[in-house]
Amino acid sequence: MELAVGSTNPVKIDAVERTLERYEPTVIAVGVDSGVDEQPRSIAETVTGAENRARRALAATDADYGVGLEGGVARLEGVPGLSLIMWGAVTDGDRTERGGGPTLRLPESVAREVSDGAELGPVMDDLLGTENVAQREGAAGALTGGLTDRTRALGDAVATSFGPFVTEYYDTDR
Ligand SMILES: O=P(O)(O)OP(=O)(O)OP(=O)(O)OC[C@H]1O[C@@H](n2cnc3c(O)ncnc32)[C@H](O)[C@@H]1O
Ligand SMILES: [Mg+2]
């Protein structure tokens, strides 16, 4: 199975390779524009970024599927504080499906800087004294003490957005 992933971030490529391992994936990294802000600030903007990445990556290749992964922040109804969210989108060129990954509350100091306009990646690097944590364990790893990491967290978004293509349960939706 050939998959075009709309990013060159190694954690996103790894997340797709590992999650879809049983399909023996060939993954092509395609640097595309997400078409949304570098730091999406709502569920809708995050999902749109994932969709754009998936469609643009597929359009640039003859892969079977395009996959888009996007990280964002949002204030969610019923959940205090600012949340880190992540969404996936998968397209076969005809149909597009979306699915989410885990949600984490950001520490207040991080939430404040991001709310003031900063991008999460650099703010996390400042807090942790790291460089490019977004390309390694990510906020998901740091904020859980390693109970999960960004590859696994994004892998969940890959699984939930890919599911409708590999199970029969959604067939009646079409
Ligand atoms: O090259 P791309 O694919 O754009 O990879 P990225 O790391 O920038 O990932 P996103 O654009 O999807 O994420 C939007 C912003 O949120 C940040 N971000 C998202 N998840 C993160 C995480 O787990 N740890 C640190 N920063 C994260 C990221 O660094 C960006 O500033
Ligand atoms: Mg980015």
TrEMBL record:
Substrate binds at S7, T8, N9, P10, V11, K12, D62, A63. The keyword Methyltransferase does not apply. InterPro entries: ITPase-like_fam, Non_canon_purine_NTPase, NTPase/PRRC1, YjjX_NTPase. GO terms for molecular function: ITPase activity; metal ion binding; nucleotide binding. Binds 1 divalent metal cation per subunit; can use either Mg(2+) or Mn(2+). Keywords: Hydrolase, Magnesium, Manganese, Metal-binding, Nucleotide metabolism, Nucleotide-binding. The keyword Manganese applies. Pfam families: NTPase_I-T (PF01931). Gene3D superfamilies: 3.90.950.10. Its cofactor is Mg(2+); Mn(2+). Residues 6-165 form the Non-canonical purine NTP phosphatase/PRRC1 domain. It catalyses: ITP + H2O = IDP + phosphate + H(+); XTP + H2O = XDP + phosphate + H(+). One of its GO terms (biological process) is thiamine metabolic process. Mg(2+) binds at D33, D62. Its EC number is 3.6.1.73. Homodimer. Belongs to the YjjX NTPase family. Phosphatase that hydrolyzes non-canonical purine nucleotides such as XTP and ITP to their respective diphosphate derivatives. Probably excludes non-canonical purines from DNA/RNA precursor pool, thus preventing their incorporation into DNA/RNA and avoiding chromosomal lesions. This is Probable inosine/xanthosine triphosphatase. It comes from Natrinema salsiterrestre. The lineage of its organism: Archaea, Methanobacteriati, Methanobacteriota, Stenosarchaea group, Halobacteria. The gene is yjjX.
